[in-house]
Each structure stands twice: as structure tokens, then as C-alpha cells.
Design goal:
With 270 residues, the chain is an alpha/beta fold. It folds into two domains: 71 residues, Orthogonal Bundle (434 Repressor (Amino-terminal Domain)); 153 residues, Endonuclease Chain A (Endonuclease, Chain A). It is 54% helix and 13% strand. The protein is built from 13 helices and six strands. It is elongated.
């Protein structure tokens, strides 16, 4: 069976091979240092096998690259198994100075704990096998580097109350997801507001959307739909999205009251 190179990982393999060659090390020598088979190392260099993070870290250590292969791995992992229609958004969120997002259905991807993400992906992609699901979960977890890195963007999320009340996966999974949300908010990583179900004049009876602002270019909006999404850069439409988001913030609970609600719902799951 002919192995098919993965477009994302051809770049990683080529860079690993270039650094190995520059260091004057053969594949056999490097495979012994890494304690992997020559066949696996060759497949990684050809892009027919997906490198794992520990492979990238081991290559950096063996070839004394200063961590450049690990950084490349993180960048490429953020794109792996991300649908083509979403890749531009992933790139933009890494460049944004501020991300504001409204979610009316689920906890936003950037804020999802691993088991919650796995349950969401399993439920929404019944055609994917276990390996595909795990790759998608890994890709989503790698996106969280945006909220953990130094110099992260300002992150402000407005969630409909249903997103913290809907049980996804199991009560235990949901309990852990709410704990993750609570810590992110209390640690000041994100600003979180919840729009109560009792809100009568709800301005967010629409699909989820996000706004991304930059230091060196105009803001853009991104609106979700079932099988894709739309990047919006028209000034008037972005302004309208800003107005809706502001209205949602006005109707939502304060950040402190929102954290209290998250804790209350979490307590109900124990």
C-alpha cells in the first residue's frame, strides 16, 4: 500500500530533514538517538506519518535546534484536521489583539476542556472513526495555545445560559467543563458573561459569531453556520456585529455574577 503524504506535515518533515542534513547526521544515527525505527523517522521526514509533539521535542534536543521544530509543530498542529473553511479563522485568531465571541449553543472551542471537546466532536461527526476524532480533539486542544501564551489577546465571551446547562457527554464531563470555565474566568484569562434564560428582549437570537480586532488592520467578524462559516470584513456589517455584541453584554450578567452562575450550575451536577 502506497503511503500518501499529508500536506500539513510535508513541511515539518522537510524542515526536520534539512536540519538533520545540516547537522551532518544520518537517518540511522538519528533514529538510534531518538530510539525510534529508521522507517518511522523516514516516514516523518516524508510527511507520510504525523509527528507527535514528543517527536518534535526529541528532534530539537538531538539536533540542537533551539526549539524551532517544536514551535513549527505547534503552528502546524493548529491547522491539522481543521476544515479548509476554518483555517483562515485559526490564523486570524493567532494574530488578533482582541477576540470577542458570542455562543448560543455550546461552550466556545477555545474554552473547551478535552473531554467536552471529544464528546462534542463524537456527537457532531458520526461518520468519523476513533482516529479521526482523536486528531480533531488534538487540533482543537492545540488552538488553546492562543489563550495560554504570553501576550495573549484580550478574550471576552458572552454565553447564553443554555451553553452551561446543556449536559454534553455526561454530568461528570459537564462538571469538569464548568470547572475549567470557572478557573479561566477567575484567573483573569478570559472575561465571561452569561445571558440568563429569563432575558425577555434577547438580542442574540442568531447564530454564534465572533469579532477579532488587530493592531495593524481593520476588525473582522466571523459568523458560524452548519457546514462552514463566513468571514465578514465589510465595515458596516462588522459595525452591526459590534452593536449586537454590545447589546448582549448589556443584557448579560456581570462577570462576577456570571462566575457565580457557573458555580451554581456546577454544584447542581454533583
Amino acid at each position: 500500500m502506497v503511503e500518501k503524504p499529508h500536506a500539513i506535515w510535508i513541511r515539518f518533515g522537510a524542515e526536520a530533514k534539512r536540519m538533520r542534513t545540516n547537522a551532518g547526521v544520518s537517518q540511522d544515527q538519528l533514529s538510534k538517538t531518538l530510539r525510534v525505527s529508521p522507517a518511522l523517522l523516514s516516514a516523518i521526514e516524508r510527511g507520510t506519518r504525523t509527528a507527535k509533539r514528543h517527536h518534535a521535542e526529541a528532534l530539537d534536543a538531538a539536533l540542537n535546534t533551539g526549539g524551532s521544530l517544536t514551535r513549527l509543530w505547534v503552528n502546524l498542529s493548529n491547522q491539522q484536521d481543521v476544515p479548509d473553511w476554518f483555517r483562515d479563522v485559526v490564523v486570524l485568531e493567532r494574530q488578533a489583539a482582541e477576540i470577542r465571541e458570542y455562543q448560543s449553543i455550546l461552550v466556545p472551542g477555545l474554552l473547551q476542556a478535552e473531554e467536552y471537546a471529544r464528546a462534542v466532536i463524537r456527537s457532531s461527526r458520526p461518520w468519523d472513526d476513533v482516529e479521526q476524532v482523536e486528531r480533531s480533539v488534538e487540533s482543537r486542544m492545540n488552538r488553546r495555545e492562543v489563550i495560554t501564551r504570553t501576550g495573549r489577546p484580550l478574550l471576552w465571551f458572552v454565553l447564553d445560559e443554555i451553553t452551561i446547562r446543556r449536559i454534553v457527554g455526561s454530568q461528570e464531563i459537564m462538571h469538569d467543563q464548568l470547572e475549567h470555565l470557572r478557573k479561566l474566568a477567575e484567573d483573569g484569562v478570559v472575561r465571561l458573561q452569561v445571558v440568563p434564560l429569563s432575558t425577555l428582549n434577547h438580542p442574540g437570537l442568531c447564530s454564534p459569531f465572533r469579532l477579532m480586532s488587530f493592531d495593524d488592520r481593520p476588525s473582522v467578524a466571523y459568523a458560524e453556520r452548519l457546514k462552514g462559516g463566513e468571514l465578514i470584513d465589510a465595515t458596516d456589517q462588522v459595525r452591526e456585529c459590534n452593536t449586537i455584541f454590545g447589546s448582549l453584554q448589556a443584557e448579560a450578567l456581570s462577570p462576577s455574577a456570571s462566575v457565580e452562575m457557573v458555580c451554581k450550575v456546577q454544584g447542581e451536577l454533583q
